[in-house]
């Protein structure tokens, strides 16, 4: 009951098996024994966010970042929680940090593209969707968005090309 590795492993497995009470109990025990444990804090943040307790989730993931500052997943989570809390600027900053940590991974670009799309920053959204397909050509969701942006701008050939690519990837 006091083995940190066992508590983390058990908590994580219960999390993915949707045994939430057991998972939370394990992560809370882990944090009780090791308050600086980044993964324990990160998973408790996930639970807080799932319950729409975004400020609490932000606090948990910030602790995870404090103790594990180069873990890209923490910045993805932080951006998501900040976004749901209405802090778009903070979300942008978190996701840009994620991109700086793993510049070849498409997901940070996708999050930023979606954020800019939501904020009607269409030129930035378009640039980031282009980066998404550059980093991961199989990610057809970005082609759908590229097609819509091109459509809105009256760029019919680019729009058709993007939609055809999306269709090819996901018939």
Structure, described:
By secondary structure, this protein is mainly alpha-helical. 79% of the residues lie in helices and 0% in strands. The protein has ten helices and no strands. It has helices at residues 4-16, 20-33, 38-50, 54-67, 72-84, 88-101, 106-118, 122-135, 140-152, 156-169. Helix 2 (20-33) packs antiparallel against helix 3 and helix 3 (38-50) packs antiparallel against helix 4 (54-67). The longest helix is centred in the first third of the chain and has 14 residues, at 20-33. The mean pLDDT is 95.
Q: Could you outline the blueprint of secondary structure elements for this entry?
A:
Layout: H1 4-16, H2 20-33, H3 38-50, H4 54-67, H5 72-84, H6 88-101, H7 106-118, H8 122-135, H9 140-152, H10 156-169
Helix pairs in contact: 1-2, 2-3, 3-4, 4-5, 5-6, 6-7, 7-8, 8-9, 9-10
């Amino acid at each position: 009951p006091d083995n940190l590795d066992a508590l983390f492993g058990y908590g994580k497995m219960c999390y993915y098996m949707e045994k939430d009470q057991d998972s939370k109990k394990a992560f809370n025990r882990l944090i009780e024994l090791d308050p600086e444990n980044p993964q324990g804090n990160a998973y408790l943040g996930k639970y807080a966010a799932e319950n729409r307790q975004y400020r609490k989730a932000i606090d948990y993931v910030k602790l995870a970042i404090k103790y594990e500052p180069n873990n890209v997943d923490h910045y993805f989570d932080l951006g998501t929680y900040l976004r749901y809390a209405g802090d778009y600027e903070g979300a942008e900053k978190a996701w840009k940090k994620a991109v700086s940590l793993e510049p070849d991974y498409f997901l940070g670009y996708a999050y930023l593209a979606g954020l800019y799309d939501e904020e009607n920053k269409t030129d930035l959204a378009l640039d980031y969707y282009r980066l998404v397909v550059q980093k991961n050509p199989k990610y057809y969701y970005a082609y759908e968005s590229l097609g819509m942006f091109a459509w809105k701008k009256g760029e019919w050939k680019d729009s058709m090309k993007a939609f055809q690519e999306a269709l090819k990837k996901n018939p």
